[in-house]
Amino acid sequence: MRLSTLSSLLLPFFVFSLLQTSTFAIKKSYIVYLGEHTHGVNPTSVDLDHATNSHYELLASLVGSSNEIAKEKIFYSYTRNINGFAAILDDEEAAKIAKHPNVVSVFLNKGRKLHTTRSWDFLRLEKDGVIPSGSLWKKSRFGADTIIGNLDTGVWPESRSFSDEGMGPIPSRWRGYCQHDTDDGVRCNRKLIGARYFNKGYSAFVGGKLNDTFKTARDHEGHGTHTLSTAGGNFVPEASVFGHGNGTAKGGSPQARVAAYKVCWPPVNGNQCFDADIMAAFDAAISDGVDVLSVSLGGDPSEFFEDGLSVGAFHAVKKGISVVSSAGNSGPSPGTVSNVSPWMFTIGASTLDREFSSYVELGDNKHLKGASLASVALSSRTFYPLISAEKVKVANTSAADTILCLPGTLDPKKVMGKIIVCLRGINARTDKGKQALLAGAVGMILANDKNSGNEVLADPHLLPATHINFTDGATVFAYINSAKNPTAYITPVKTELGIKPAPFMASFSSRGPNLIEPSILKPDITAPGVSIIAAFTESVGPTEDKSDKRRIPFTSQSGTSMSCPHVSGIVGLLKSLHPDWSPAAVKSAIMTSAKTRDNTAKPMLDSSNKRATPFAYGAGHVRPNRAMDPGLVYDLTVDDYLNFLCARGYNQRMMRLFSDKPHACPKSYNVADFNYPSISVPQHSGSTTISRKVKNVGPPGTYKAHVRSPAGVTVSVNPSSLTFKKSGEEKKFEVTFKSKSNVQPAGYAFGHLTWSDGHHHVRSPLVVEHK
Ligand SMILES: *[C@@H]1O[C@H](CO)[C@@H](O)[C@H](O)[C@H]1NC(C)=O
Ligand SMILES: *[C@@H]1O[C@H](CO)[C@@H](O)[C@H](O)[C@H]1NC(C)=O
Ligand SMILES: *[C@@H]1O[C@H](CO)[C@@H](O)[C@H](O)[C@H]1NC(C)=O
Ligand SMILES: *[C@@H]1O[C@H](CO)[C@@H](O)[C@H](O)[C@H]1NC(C)=O
After folding, report:
1. What is the value of pTM for the model shown?
2. For a substitution probing ligand 4, which of 392, 394, 405 has the most ligand atoms within 8 Å of its CB?
3. Where are the transmembrane segments (predicted)?
């Protein structure tokens, strides 16, 4: 349940229902968000104390207690950048606080998930190669001295990706540090310049005190090491996964400094990262002096100020810090995208043109290509008996569970010595391999279900195993059903390059439309997130299963968690090259220079093999070298964000809470006019006009508008030509959408608008929803 001042109309009913159920006054952890502090950007310790005391006083006055009791209830006081606190409250208290005029929102300390496919699918590997080693690296000096912070599971400081060999002194503006409170703590070096942990929100959720294993920023999970090294890891030669994909590992900004903010802990019911901790980490990172924050986690889409990540990102972006986040792994269903605030940079995931291939050879001579990063191969080059998992069930289970190779479903008597076919879904992909191995299988073929389509993932399996697509899976099942004695062989893993088509969208990547604010298209862009090799913890094996005794410094993972830090690294490069660009300008440069075609020059495909849409890839696939010289940008100032909030229904009084100076809401301002680099028109009928402005960041020149109209509308741009005499000049234009006939079939249509001076192509996706 969430409370918000936005839903104040509903509040009386809300409170009524709360009162009815609050006989037990169950206490939960809540976040009370108060907006902006009145102290400036450099608060003194007196200011900070004053902020904390104001939180005690506010809570005490509202719940009718002493300051002492209020102090006991509050476990975080956000005093530096974010104004607010986290406290243990009952529902009645929370509802009462939400009504106070100085309170922006009150929301539950919700749990968030890391955005790998691991939680429902699991790990696998691949390589990192998609970021071109071209000129942006050189021009930006490999992101030298940009500081990238990462909110995640911490860091494995001994990883070679975080070696400080050859790095100069730490930039003097840095105010962060490494927490080394226990033997398990993390020490800084000139590369890894910060490592802090935030666990009070987790503690409040699980209840009870945490022991010393929770007092370190050290990564015992692997996810944070992987994402941080993808964003800013150093060059590490001869990195491989069991010898596969041998090459130089590198982050997007190899010369950047990095800082880990550990906010994710061992999962409780799938949730591992809590809003109260996420907000504390944002508040700290902003003051520490990061330039970029990479956040590969999220929850269900929620209202902008009832989501700790969105609140934290709002304050970061207001201070000029770019916040890059993952779109989520709940695809391919529509409306699943999370981290949907307009101040966040939201990243989908797609494939690379490299595969770790391991083929299935069937007894009838068919060869099917699969993906694997298994650490072992079959012992002899012979055909082994092949069986579907469905046929090897123990008495106390169902065929539906057995085909998935869930724990305790496979009968060793029927499996021993065979290659077993398991279906994707429910348990981790590598766990299916583990179950097959425990039951005595010599190998496993992992077949996609219909939803996961043609997306196959190379995983660090414990036994010879390969992952095949849905159509090939059907071929295998048909062969098993028709052959008298079905047999198969699985070839050893080999690395293949130049795979076509690539990229295509990963099925897991969360899809638009944006359910919170449909006029902001999300995700913003896509980047590689399938089978990505990066640094790993040496605390657990690559399957993260206790029984996995293998330890490897690099592994492959997949998810929007992996695509997000690719973009964080690229943002780091652009910040080094253009230190004066705002987060919105950086984002615009990356979005308007993206491509929507794959390496066969055809439109990018979805995992279903159909043409992908902006609901999957936003503006398209990231192209770092183009992003450094975009020509024009759709820039945004803090006032634009405030106007956006006005249009979202926050009134003048609320504006005072978001800004340390008064902000007058414009008389007429439509959310659709927010100067976003993509254009989305929800609920269109008849005629709709929206406005935008572009800023020249290149040489003087004349840009002409080129439109590809979405089906069912004609689009006109006015003026259709813009002349810029100098850099920094800004020009406005309007885009009008007119329905071609009165009746359009309901649904979405896609097109694009491109401004071009012949050299630069500034492209924005157009999305129209016919009402
Ligand atoms: C710390 O607490 C966790 C979770 O309650 C537990 O799994 C772990 O064994 C404890 N570790 C120590 C050293 O007590
Ligand atoms: C990786 O490649 C390097 C140089 O090409 C070679 O010396 C090394 O043995 C290779 N490592 C593995 C694990 O294949
Ligand atoms: C499945 O994989 C095979 C390679 O074994 C490929 O030829 C086929 O096109 C793929 N199917 C789809 C739907 O992508
Ligand atoms: C079936 O029973 C066995 C033996 O009691 C047990 O180990 C296994 O977990 C059970 N399987 C299921 C799916 O309940």
Report:
1. 0.91
2. 394
3. none
